[in-house]
């Protein structure tokens, strides 16, 4: 039992390498996945148009540009399709094979999704960074500490996103059609995370609801750290919230997974 | 009638060797291998024949069936089924044939088979009266009665297969392509399906082309067999004739009341199997009568059985020879 | 022709009974679509909370665009999308071969295979929204406008159908292609906004490349009586052109499938 986490750790490089090979194996699918996360550019077109004559609720065109480019970057860095992958494997029976192996699927899938990261980003990120630096320079924070804190912030965001998507993927153990729930999740995500529009633009009562949901900590918080100045207390609260939700999301993932496995074993797959 | 002349079907398969470097390279440049699934096969099957299509896995049987049923275009060569070019997939052609794939299902999963039948009736435009009668016949022959009301997912494999067969025959095709129809079924069900196919063949004068890994299916059902290996045809002819030519010795099995010495056993024939008192020997055909006389008379053997050599053994020899031949 | 009608009737019946087989699902899905609709409306509410008009569209007019968006989406998610997801699954497990063995047009069979009947809620929501918008305007649409609005709604649906078929046909070539459906759904999402809101490159993309404008904005313009001849002809012509293109792509895909699969 004690050897397990060590074994997992040692296996990670290989898992990573295989993940890369898998990613590259399906070129077209891969490109499509990248394209699906370009919604911020569409939103950018929309909101800059709205803010053309006059700033909208304190957001000038420039500020919208910076916001959505940052949103694109964060989304590219934190997106994954593990829910879809798990659903497929459970339906096809491949998941049964995975369960026979000594490594917990959580880590295997995580390594696989992480492996895709460099390749997903290779096209979009440089462009986005350049654009962001040039056009949004006035809006970005210059506080070096905030910039440094971006790293743990994005890491937390990735973990929360992955854990919750893992939980949704595990729902395929129970439901034959998880598409509806996945769609619902996506609808709530795009609204409450700041993906669809900056959270400050939402009516106050919705913002209150958003504060209690994990979505804000997946997209909005890193963007907020990048584009606004905060004092120490605020930063601590934001990162603390992310850390708390990381734990929470993993707990949810674990619970759903366990329940799913129990059902799987009872039904016989 | 089915006719194939120098039929070829090749596939381009993307080569993907393992390793990170190859994976990266495959993003920009892909290399292909050509797989010759069917490489120059010719045969003619007359109306009403029952033909077994045999070969090891990957020999090209399923590919040939797919070309004959119109699912695949031939790479080259001629093929005609019921006087039509299958790959044109004309409605008239599709109404005359049926393809049953043992490993793939056409029944709607969540609904009773009856619903799939209703759909097929609409698609094939079968007149109501004829459909009712056909369904009655099939229900009776295959004992489908209680199965028609249960959702497909609740049926056992054998029950599902029977319903699949019925679905495939509702439009009364005259050419049947059966690709491993008895796979995974228990012996009783295999026999039932064999009997059914034979009866359908006789009543409708339907041509049957069957592939199966169960030799019993072929031996019981097909007077003629076509053997394929690695895309080429290595035998086409009468089954009994083949067995006699390849291996004219019979297999004689018996039980002895008392043990017998090796020398005495060797006089009967070559020992093939010994399981306690149950012994199987191989006896050349012309010596069978004498051997039986000796067994029943002097040795007082019981439970005597005389059988042809198993088809598997014959095929194994055939494939072995084929592979050893210079390419 | 009657044969196809009979086939569609049977397929609809079997599919809807399959959907109804999971009864609880029906109401859960209904609830989900209502929530989804509310989320769809929220950004619109935010924008018009601060502005009277955006790119020449006021709130009631924009709501009508959303109404058309919900209507087209209802048909999409109610029949086109489930059928084509079904197709992708069949291609993967090999049972698509059985469709090719039937003496009926494969595209027709495949397009009518599966239904999600709870999407009727979406459609009712769309009508309610459009009704509400006209109440806000203070006067109902002129009969001629309503007629043209209905016709162009049909064109919008056909255009969406054509795009989705092209998408589904792609899964003949590339095995794991259902995420292309997600992409298309995400792009289609743009249709909830009047196309005039977008400028430059995006506008061109959404009017010509993936003509979302054709599906929602132009029909809305027709209903509002503000459509010009170019847009009318563009919508009808565009839908027809897309149908032809999609048919060609489909046939190429089938030819490819029967020559390259194993």
Which features would summarize this protein structure in a list?
heterotrimer; A: 269 residues; 12 helices; C: 262 residues; mainly alpha; two-stranded antiparallel ribbon; 2% strand
Topology at a glance:
The complex is a heterotrimer of chains A (269), B (327) and C (262).
Chain A lengths: L2 H23 L1 H10 L2 H12 L10 H18 L3 H11 L1 H6 L5 H31 L8 H27 L8 H14 L11 H9 L7 H8 L4 H36 L2
Chain B lengths: L1 E14 L4 H9 L2 E15 L4 E5 L6 H9 L6 E6 L9 H6 E5 L11 H12 L3 H15 L14 H13 L5 E5 L7 H18 L2 E5 L3 H7 L2 E6 L2 E7 H8 L3 E6 L6 H7 L1 E6 L2 E6 L4 H10 L4 E6 L3 H14 L3
Parallel strand pairs in B: 3-7, 3-8, 5-6, 6-7
Antiparallel strand pairs in B: 1-2, 1-4, 8-9, 10-12, 10-13, 11-12
Chain C lengths: L1 H19 L2 H28 L2 E2 L2 E2 H35 L2 H5 L5 H6 L8 H18 L5 H31 L4 H11 L11 H10 L2 H4 L1 H8 L4 H32 L2
Antiparallel strand pairs in C: 1-2
Helix pairs in contact in C: 2-3, 3-6, 3-7, 3-11, 7-8, 7-11, 7-12
Order of helices and strands of chain A: HHHHHHHHHHHH
Fraction of helical residues of chain A: over 70%
The largest beta-sheet of chain C arranges its strands as 1-2
Largest sheet of chain A: none
Q: Major sheet of chain C, described briefly?
A: 2 strands, antiparallel
Helix/sheet category of chain A = mainly alpha
Oligomeric nature of the chains:
heterotrimer
Whole-angstrom Rg of chain C: 19 Å
Mean pLDDT figure of chain A: 82
Gross morphology of chain C is: globular
Task: Supply the helix-strand structural class of chain C.
Answer: mainly alpha
N- to C-terminal distance of chain A:
26 Å
Note the run of SSEs of chain C as H and E. HHEEHHHHHHHHHH
Q: How many beta-strand runs of chain A? A: 0
Model description:
With 269 residues, chain A is an all-alpha fold. Chain A has twelve helices and no strands. Chain A has helices at residues 3-25, 27-36, 39-50, 61-78, 82-92, 94-99, 105-135, 144-170, 179-192, 204-212, 220-227, 232-267. The model of chain A has no long low-confidence stretch (mean pLDDT 82). Chain B is α/β, with parallel strands linked by helices. Chain B is built from twelve helices and 13 strands. Chain B has helices at 20-28, 61-69, 91-96, 113-124, 128-142, 157-169, 187-204, 215-221, 239-246, 262-268, 288-297, 311-324, and strands at 2-15, 31-45, 50-54, 76-81, 97-101, 175-179, 207-211, 224-229, 232-238, 250-255, 270-275, 278-283, 302-307. Chain B has a six-stranded mixed β-sheet, sandwiched between helices. In chain B, a hairpin with a 2-residue loop joins strand 11 and strand 12. In chain B, helix 4 (113-124) runs parallel beside helix 6. Chain B is globular, with a radius of gyration of 24 Å. Chain B starts with a strand and ends with a helix. The relative contact order of chain B is 0.12. Chain C is mainly alpha-helical and 262 residues long. Chain C is built from twelve helices and two strands. A two-stranded antiparallel ribbon of chain C has the order 1-2. Chain C starts with a helix and ends with a helix. The mean pLDDT of chain C is 85. Chains in contact: A-B, A-C, B-C. Chain A binds chain C through residues 26, 28-29, 32-33, 35-36, 39, 41-42, 45-46, 49-50, 56-57, 81, 84, 176-177, 179-181, 183-184, 187-188, 190-191, 196-197, 201-203, 206, and chain C through 22, 25, 28-29, 32, 35-36, 39, 42-43, 46-47, 49-51, 54-55, 85, 170, 173-177, 179-180, 182-183, 186-187, 189-190, 193, 197-200, 202.
